[in-house]
Structure formats: structure tokens, C-alpha cells
Specification:
By secondary structure, this protein is an alpha+beta fold. The chain has helices at residues 2-18, 20-29, 157-164, 174-184, 208-220, 226-241, 245-257, 285-295, 312-323, 382-392, 410-416, 449-465, 470-487, 491-505, 511-519, 523-534, 553-561; strands at residues 106-109, 115-119, 125-132, 143-144, 151-152, 187-192, 197-204, 303-308, 348-353, 366-374, 394-396, 424-431, 436-444, 539-544. One of its GO terms (molecular function) is metal ion binding.
């Protein structure tokens, strides 16, 4: 109603400015029309007409003790909406806690090789989805389609497929899917990485079957029309223009750390994960179909159906109905085993100068990261590296503080609290099948970027030379366990953890086993991991408006050569 009144007022002002005398006469001669009554069924769901609202003054209020207890409701609640002793039919019956099974991960393999993993949490909302064992590392600049000998580019396809998720399918258009999911009380998600792709729906438990059917359509029979592809390519252009510097630094570490080999071959882990501006024009609907035919449609062993908050038998039944018909292509032989080519860590340097920020009030920072190679998902150093990352900790120069925020981590104490010019300093790690990266990143004003690079390098040398303290190690182990257990309380994280572990290891470790591995990490393990990492050449990545003050990777190499680890294969 306020909007309508304002609109009418603006119209009266414009009209009176053109004909002031005539407007005043008309206004005096006739009464102003009453504003239209706006009635919203959402605001008053139990009324057929809008309620009558009357104005009152302070003198109209009866000041008495009895009046204070009078009901202020404008209408009574109908019996259908009131809370009663009987259970509504749409809700499942209450079951005594003692009769419920203890939640545990259950895994089943279908006859065609599709794996199903789930954990029943007895919640009223279920999270379920599909994880696929392909990612941006499997893209090619030139791919020949076997059936037609047509050459297409699949570079950037995973980025495009992530945006095309839950668009038009064989039986529904994108608007239908959105409306259906809204009516089901659900939400959809899709994300891709260098090695895996994930599709997910989060929906009310009674509507799981219908939502999973839409999920299956999205994966099995998307239309991938040219109009949709062109629309999403425009979205990708905007994403490339507005990409955060932290993401650009991480991409630079991957491309420099797994650089081209001596023969000029671009390694899989060195490929950009996000579609580049050079590869964007070559992306077509045919590129998506060709990539799906190669990595998805004939590879049931690369499909994992995962769920949390759902009975395992129910999820197996849904997986059988939607993915049980997919069969391996016998003509491919062992071609699937050759899809993933191990990458070799090379070390190197990535430097990117960014254009000025259009907002002159925003301060420009230079971002620097130094990383070394560590083991991958199957390495025994995986857990020690995670403990080391937590021990270093770090974050932004601003934090609300409080317990559990990592304010006593080493980078907070010795970088952020020591150097006033440090905007951020944080440890990171990324793991892949055959290799991984571990390092420290930081940001600061451009004139301080040389000092920041030296400060990060000194921390690598200190870790390789001195054992961490008992207090630091205990705090890091406890914080890592706390983070793991807290994250697993989320049904979305639990669903993803089940699926990714099955896809990576073929099984899932429970929380007790993981906590035991964390507790087993010693100070000597931490130093050994760092010393082995420093035997490899470093990788330097820097992004910013002015990166001239950031040292070259050769200078960083000379600094590291002064440390306790003297024998270096790259020196």
C-alpha cells in the first residue's frame, strides 16, 4: 500500500507542475479518491478479505490490569493450524531412541559397478547426490570424437558443466526444475574440481524420490542447448573479470608447480581449472557432449551415489532405478585407466599484474604464496601435513577473536601480530591423487611485498630447523579434531565426505580412526615432512597491481639454501 501511495503522490506532483491552477481547482472541488486496498493471501492466509485496520490514539488505551491480559490477535487460529496432541499425517511417527541403530556408513556396489554410500542421521532433511571421477585435469585442448573424427576443444568444460547443472533436460526445462524444487522444499548444488565433479540436492525427506529423479535427469540426459551454453559463457566472462586474487594465486601455484615438461607437454595438474579467456570462444555444446561421452556415459565404475539422512536401502533402490542401467563400453577396453596421467612436480614461478580497482577508496594489496610438493591422497604424510597446516594457521589481520579462532597459531603470533603492514598470512594445502602442494600465502601493500616474501621463507626454514613446541602441537591436534568433528555435523559435509572418500579410497574411515591418526602425529613427524618438502624446488605465485617488489623465485631459492637442509636436488 505504501508503494501505491507513493506512486500516486509522484503522479500528482508531476501533474500539478504542468497545470498548477487547474490542479488546485480540481483538488478543491472533489475529494481525493481512496487508495486501493491491497490484500495478500500470503500475509493473511486464513482470510477471504483484508482486515479492517482502524487508527487509535494514546487516550483510547484503557489502563487497567484486566486489559493488559486481553488478546491482541486479529483472528483466531483455525484447528487445522493449531498445535494439538496428535501427530500430523505428513510427519513420520516418533520412535524411541533406544530402538534406533547407531549411525554408520553403509556401502553397496550395484551389479554394473555403481557404488552407493550413505549414513542414516534420522533428520527430516536429506542430502543426496552423485560424485563423478573426472575433473578439469582430464580436459584437452584438442579431442577427436571417435564416432565422427570431429576435433573439438574440451578446455574449460568442467567450469561450464558446473554452471549448466540443473538446466534443461530431456523431460523438463530449467524453469520447471526450479519450480519443482521450490515446491519440494529443496535446493540444488553443483561443484567441480581438478579430479571430481559433484551434483547434490538437499530436500525434505518425504520428497527424496522426486528430487533424486530430477538429479538423475540432470546427469544422464541434459539438453545442453546452444542458447544455454552461450548464456553461461557470458556468465563465465563476468566471473573471469571479477575473480578474487586469492583464487588467482592458487591457480598460479598449480600451473607453475606442475609446469610444462621439457618436451613442451602441458601436464594435467598444471592445467587451469577455470576456463581461460583464450579457451572460452572454443567452447560449444558439442564440447560438453564429447566430454560426457568420454568420461561419464560408459563408465559406471566412476559413479558414486552418496547420501546423508536417508535409509541405505532406500538410496540403493533410487540408485538402481536411475543409474543401474548404465553399462561399460566393451570397445573402450582399459582406456579408462589411461585417462589420468601422473603429473611431475617441477616448481616454478607465476606472476600476474592486475588492472587497478575501479573503486579508488579500496586499498590495493599484493598477494604472495610459496609452496612445496608433498604427498597426495594416498601418502602417509597426509595427516601430518594437515596438522602442520593447522599449527601454522593464520588468517586476516582482522578477526572477531574468541576461542577456536586460531589467534594463537604461529602465523597469527609471528606475522600478523608482529608486522603492522601484514594484511593476511595463512597456511594452505591441496591434495591430488599422486601429489599435493603445501605452503604459506600472504598479502600486504606493494612496497612491503619483499619483506612479506622473506618472512614467509623464514618460517619454512624455522620449521625445518627447530621442533615445534608441545603446546603448539597439542593445540593444533585438538583444533584439527574439533574442526573435523564439527564439520561432520553438517549433513552437506557428511554427504560430501562419504562420496569423496569412496571415490578416492573405495571405503570410508570413521571419525574415531581419523582422530587416532591425528593424535599419533609427533613433533618429529612435522619436521620430517617439512625437511622432505624443502628438498624440492619452491613454487612462487604473486598477483597484484604492483608486483615489482616481489623477489624472483631464484632469490627465494638462494634464501632457502641458507637453511639447515643443505643437500638439495634442485640446487
Amino acid at each position: 500500500m505504501i508503494t501505491a501511495v507513493r506512486s500516486a503522490a509522484r503522479h500528482s506532483i508531476r501533474h500539478s507542475s504542468r497545470h498548477p491552477i487547474h490542479s488546485r481547482r480540481c483538488f478543491a472541488a472533489q475529494a481525493a479518491p481512496e487508495p486501493p486496498k491491497i490484500f495478500s493471501e500470503n500475509e493473511y492466509p486464513d482470510r477471504d478479505e483484508a482486515p479492517i485496520i482502524t487508527r487509535s490514539s494514546a487516550s483510547d488505551v484503557v489502563k487497567s490490569k484486566d486489559a493488559a491480559h486481553a488478546s491482541t490477535l486479529q483472528y483466531s487460529i483455525p484447528p487445522s493450524r493449531s498445535i494439538g496432541p496428535t501427530r500430523p499425517s505428513q510427519l513420520p511417527p516418533n520412535i524411541p531412541l533406544e530402538s534406533l541403530e547407531i549411525p554408520e556408513t553403509k556401502i553397496t556396489t550395484l551389479s554394473n559397478g555403481v557404488r552407493v554410500g550413505s549414513m542414516e542421521t534420522y533428520s527430516q532433511v536429506s542430502t543426496l547426490g552423485v560424485l563423478l571421477d573426472f575433473g578439469s585435469r582430464h580436459e584437452l585442448d584438442q579431442f577427436t570424437i571417435p564416432s565422427t573424427n570431429e576435433v573439438v576443444s574440451t578446455a574449460g568444460v568442467n567450469h561450464l558443466m558446473e554452471l549448466l547443472a540443473f538446466q534443461s533436460t530431456k523431460n523438463h526445462n530449467s524453469a520447471d526444475i526450479r519450480n519443482i524444487m521450490e515446491n519440494l522444499g529443496g535446493a540444488t548444488f553443483a561443484t567441480s574440481s581438478r579430479e571430481q565433479m559433484m551434483y547434490c540436492v538437499d530436500v525434505l525427506r518425504p520428497n527424496v524420490k522426486h528430487a533424486f529423479h530430477l538429479l538423475g535427469e540432470t546427469i544422464k540426459c541434459p539438453m545442453v542447448e546452444e542458447e544455454e551454453v552461450e548464456e553461461m559463457k557470458r556468465v563465465m566472462e563476468f566471473q573471469l573479470m571479477d575473480m578474487m586474487p586469492q583464487i588467482l594465486v592458487g591457480e598460479g601455484l598449480q600451473m607453475a608447480g606442475y609446469g610444462r615438461l621439457e618436451n613442451g607437454v602441458l601436464q594435467q595438474l598444471g592445467r587451469p581449472h577455470f576456463c581461460t579467456s583464450e579457451a572460452l570462444p572454443n567452447l560449444t555444446a558439442r564440447s560438453v557432449h564429447a566430454f560426457r561421452e568420454q568420461h561419464l556415459l560408459n563408465r559406471p565404475e566412476g559413479i558414486v551415489v552418496s547420501g546423508s539422512g536417508i535409509a541405505h536401502d532406500a538410496l540403493v533402490e533410487l540408485a538402481e532405478a536411475n543409474f543401474g542401467h548404465i553399462s561399460a563400453d566393451p570397445t573402450n577396453g582399459n582406456a579408462s585407466d589411461n585417462r589420468t596421467i601422473p603429473s611431475v612436480y617441477t616448481g616454478g614461478e607465476y606472476r600476474l599484474e592486475t588492472p587497478p580497482n575501479p573503486n579508488p577508496a579500496k586499498e590495493e594489496f599484493t598477494f604472495v604464496a610459496i609452496a612445496f610438493e608433498v604427498g597426495g591422497w594416498h601418502s602417509p604424510d597426509l595427516v601430518p601435513v594437515c596438522v602442520l597446516q593447522t599449527l601454522l594457521g593464520g588468517g586476516s589481520s582482522f578477526s572477531a577473536g574468541g576461542p577456536g579462532k586460531g589467534m594463537y597459531s604461529r602465523l597469527y603470533r609471528e606475522v600478523l601480530n608482529r608486522f603492522h603492514w601484514a594484511e593476511s598470512a595463512e597456511a594452505f594445502s591441496s591434495f591430488h591423487a599422486e601429489s599435493g602442494l603445501w605452503g604459506i600465502s600472504g598479502s600486504c601493500p606493494a612496497e612491503r611485498s619483499g619483506e612479506m616474501t622473506r618472512a614467509l621463507t623464514d618460517h619454512f626454514l624455522k620449521l625445518a630447523d627447530q621442533l615445534v613446541t608441545d603446546e603448539e602441537l597439542d593445540r593444533a591436534r585438538n583444533m584439527l579434531k574439533c574442526n573435523v568433528l564439527t564439520q561432520l555435523e553438517s549433513r552437506l559435509v557428511l554427504f560430501e565426505d562419504i562420496g569423496r572418500q569412496i571415490l578416492t579410497y573405495g571405503k570410508r574411515e570413521d571419525a574415531a580412526t581419523m582422530c587416532a591418526k591425528i593424535d599419533a602425529v609427533s613433533k618429529e613427524d612435522i619436521r620430517e615432512v617439512v625437511q622432505k618438502a624443502l628438498l624440492k624446488p619452491p613454487t612462487l605465485s604473486t598477483v597484484g597491481l604492483d608486483i615489482s617488489k616481489v623477489p624472483k623465485v631464484e632469490e627465494v631459492t638462494q634464501w632457502l639454501a641458507q637453511g639447515p637442509v643443505h643437500r638439495r636436488s634442485w640446487f
